Amino acid sequence: MSTANVKHKRLAVIIMSYICLIISLGSIAGCSFNGGPRGRAGHLPTDTHGIDFPNPDKLGKHSYGVTLYEVGGIIYTCKAGHLDLGHIRGNADNTKFLVKRVRDTLSKNNDGFGFTITGELSRHSVNFTYPQDWESNPNKESVIEEIALATGPYLSHQATVWHEILTWFGVHFMGFEQEFNSAFSWEDMYSNVLGTQLAVQALKTPGKSFDQAMTDLLNVKLKQLNVQPKEVAVKASDKMRDIWYTGNLTPDMKIRHLDIGLDGYITPNIVPGIEECSDAPVPIAVPNLNVLRSHGFDITHRVSPNVLEQGKIYKAAGTKKIYPEQHYPVIMAEIKRQAIQKGYKIIEETPR
Predict the structure, then answer these.
(1) 258 in Cβ contact with 278 (< 8 Å)
(2) Are the beta carbons of 102 and 127 closer than 8 angstroms?
(3) What are the helix and strand counts (H, E) for the chain?
(4) What is the number of structural domains in the chain?
(5) How far is the C-alpha of 138 from the C-alpha of 297, rounded, in Å?
(6) pLDDT digits (tens, 9 = 90+) for 137-176
(7) CA angle, corner 200, sides to 158 and 195, nearest 5?
(8) What is d(CA 29, CA 63) in angstroms, rounded to the nearest whole number?
(9) Beta strands 265-266 and 81-84: pairing type?
(10) Is residue 81 part of a domain?
């Protein structure tokens, strides 16, 4: 293929990705040209223009594909604070997709695979190192399933952290929309990890489709987290106006949740003084590679930014070869420095 044709093909993919994102912002459906799940609209946890606060008793049916019946928006729980349904559902679907990619790769004894998240140009490359006795292992099928159900969520979590890193450094996924103002907003990380946990449970639920299991599990989990009515969610958001955020049409988050689970857990950000709530915050465990490594495997995960702003990210990481396990802590330290310099309040890892 000629260089010109390659450039034209890349331009077409970029244009279609932008169209896909625009469609997804309608909250009915997105689309995917990378084989992965559709995109979804996210919301800020602010009582501002265009933010949906749904009735938590009427969240519709989860759908990996196109649907008219799935509800998104911001809800409030006493034990986990604000949650973004778009992030929960989207990361659940990313997890389902990546579990399958891991399972297929190991089943075929392939070295690895690559993936992109719908709407992004960054490329994730995943390579596996197999144990020496793998060929003679009599329990390959069960081991592969165990590894897939642990590694898929891990990769999904790492990819969503990368998304927040991209937004912090000024990437515009549609070329014009506001993004920096939402980077590491206080509900993002918890919502994303919750999505990975629900996805694994849904994939392991016998007798139900993934969509039906996700619908049921989400409703059960929200009740466990003491979900509150719509009016409480709005009140909690409005209570933090001019404290955690300012503005209306494009609010700026004055508090940034930089806890990405480097200590193994993400602690939620609870709005103080909500009289309906007396619960203690419930930290959520982030996915890890313990299962994979316990079976003698190892993994190399590399991210190629493929964005105009990648020079800023390379500078923050101190390298042009970014491996999340190694370089996320370095990048997050630089983001923390920049956030403090900008006058933001930050939420960090909670010592345990």
Answers:
(1) no
(2) no
(3) 9, 11
(4) 1
(5) 16
(6) 999 999 999 999 999 999 999 999 999 999 999 997 665 5
(7) 55
(8) 9
(9) unpaired
(10) yes
